[in-house]
Amino acid sequence: MQINWRIDGFASPARPAGTVPRNLMGFMDGIANPSVTSAPQLDSLVWVDPSTSREPSWTAGGSYLVVRLIRMFVEFWDRVDIEEQETMIGRRRATGFPLDADSLYATPDYANDPTGDVIPLTAHMRLANPRTPQSASSQILRRAYNYDRGIDQVGDLDMGLIFTCFQQDIGRQFATVQTRLIGEPLIDYISPFGGGYFLALPGVSGPSDYYGRALLA
After folding, report:
1. What is the pLDDT of residues 30-56, one digit of tens each?
2. Looking at the predicted structure, is the pLDDT value of residue 13 above 80?
3. How far apart are CA 99 and CA 121, in angstroms?
4. Alpha-carbon span 160 to 70, nearest angstrom
5. In this predicted model, what pLDDT tens digit does every residue of 78-111 receive, in sequence order?
6. For position 1, what pLDDT does the model report?
7. Spatial distance between the Cα atoms of 77 and 26, rounded to a whole number of angstroms
């Protein structure tokens, strides 16, 4: 095997300490995620299960990985009033709290805000995860890293997000989330420019196992 592509990324230290790292727009990134300690959630959202899908048997216990490279127009974004930024995201920039709550991991109460008076219906967090019974199966396990490649040919900052997420089914999860985000206000400040779909192979189960065994054997 030979590496054919890479990009350097980094995670900014959480500010304040003990919270969640921030992206280059200044907002905490990846607050709401499925629990990695909940076996039922991992089984239903992350691990591939060929017995319930058309996937080949060697994918069992693996996970589909999506990588999306997203340039952020940070100079343009920094000219936007903070309150307007917060309504586009749905969270406070300083604390990460949902606009209707007073703690970082609070569940936004969309049922009591049906017309989006507090958290707009077009807010990124509300579109990405509406928290309805119908959207529960489209949750993704996300991991994001910042990148900074200096400046482009016209002197604008070339920086943004290396978005990655793991899921059981790309169509049911990542693609469905992206469909909900079509036309959101944030699209004026970001521009996806690359990435891809991959399968993360199952891990090694013990001394007699080896990486990729189910695929190669």
Report:
1. 999 999 999 999 999 999 999 988 999
2. yes
3. 12
4. 6
5. 999 999 999 999 999 999 999 999 999 999 999 9
6. 76
7. 10
- Pull the structure tokens for residue 15: 């500010």
- Locate 22 and state its tokens: 């921030």
Asked if omega into 13 is within 30° of 0 (cis), the reply is no
Kindly state the tokens that stand for 68. 């999306």
Residue 11's Cβ-side half-sphere holds a number of Cα atoms within 13 Å equal to 13
